[in-house]
Design brief:
The structure is a single chain. The protein is mainly α. α2 crosses α3. The protein starts with a helix and ends with a helix.
């Protein structure tokens, strides 16, 4: 059972760009654009771009794997906590 408090924490799906046929194209969480990742996380695209410049992992074509990005961000936040 989902409580009201838990409901506030449920993340809505990423809205994909409309495909040429009027439908929605599938979003691959293993190959997201900066804009798709920003929408998924509710973060500014400039923040994601800065993370990529700071070393967040990307594929050769610039795609971002959501799981790899989350792991990188978690490590980075852990390192920042250790410095305090």
């Amino acid at each position: 059972m989902t409580t009201r408090t838990m409901s506030a924490k449920i993340v809505t799906p990423v809205e994909a760009q409309a495909a040429a046929d009027g439908g929605h194209e599938a979003v691959n969480p293993a190959a997201l654009t900066v804009e798709q990742l920003a929408r998924a996380l509710g973060a500014p695209a400039d923040t994601i771009r800065r993370h990529v410049q700071d070393g967040a992992p990307t594929a050769d074509d610039g795609a971002i794997n959501l799981i790899q990005y989350a792991a990188w961000l978690n490590r980075r936040l852990g390192e920042m906590g250790e410095q305090e």
